[in-house]
Amino acid sequence: MAETGSPKKLPLDALWRARTSKFGDFAGYDMPLQFEGLIPEHNWTRSHAGLFDVSHMGPSFFALPKGHGLEGDAAHKAVAAIIERLVPADIQGLKPGQVRYTMITNAEGGVLDDLMIARPAEEGAAGDLYIVVNAGCKHQDWALIEAAAKGEANLVRADDRCLLALQGPAAHKVAAEVIDPALADMSFMSVKRFPGFGRLTVTRSGYTGEDGFEILVRAENAGELAEKLLAHPQVKPIGLGARDSLRLEAGLCLYGHDLDPATSPIEADLAWTIQKRRREAKDFPGAARIARELELGPPRKRVGIRPNDRAPAREGVEIYKDGKQIGLVTSGGFSPVLNGPISMGYVQTAHAEPGHVVDLMIRGTPRSATIVPLPFVPHNYVRKK
Questions:
Q1: 3-state class of 6 per DSSP?
Q2: The CATH fold of domain 8-55+161-249
């Protein structure tokens, strides 16, 4: 259940207010929306490194009780089996230091939230998971996790800390210089803890399609870290507006828009998040529907859409073919890289192949558009051998 009242302030609220007055309420937090402007911030992240404050998210630690007596893989499999009661990914199969993207599914196979689950690699971390859920769903998600755990594991919230995202092609250079040279050796979707700045939990991941890191730091150390990152000539602060345009170009889902309790991971083109062991076991919520859609195909699919003129098609715009509605836009906006409008949405599977021409009903007028592959802009993730 979400907390109510006036928007919460981020731990680094004063730091951001010294740089911008453009704030807005998002998921119950007062968030910086823009600094220099959406397009320059977007382009800076694509070419240099942008620093995002994403402390509104839901970082947490999920661990077996102290004195559980298990070691290594046995401890990991025990805690992973508990979280697997909620998600369709193979969490037991995570290697030390590996991060996996997954979803909490409901009994009908719909998505209640998407999240990251990591297996720490450090000695003494056997039986621990690092979990980051979405801002708007975190209280619901944590309640679901605690209910599924049945006292067999403990959930510790870490949303009193600061979560910073450093994103862009210069992120590895900056992180290595400011935090620790070893960050540059991390691979995409890996996690590592570092002793500096009061101890950091760092994943090489993000929400822009660029290389980068998400850094969990205690609130009392966050200001020093943020100031040192911002002092680097390759780094500028980036607001929530550019975060959304960057993720849209990268073809990444936003929960509550492109994902919801009625939409399955297969419809969302996220079948790759369900590994072989779980597909075969069919032992997760909504497995019957998801297995059926894996075998027979879903009735609709998430697709990329490029309007054939300059009119943007935003969330809620209906998609037509030959005078009949075949789908709906779930995210839309302007792409600074492509210098034109882009959208994502769901269409009937028969019309989901790239190259299909459809009509977008914008203010009562049909506007031509083309189904295109996702992402709109190629990902630049770094995968080490």
A1: coil
A2: Gyrase A; domain 2 (3.30.1360)
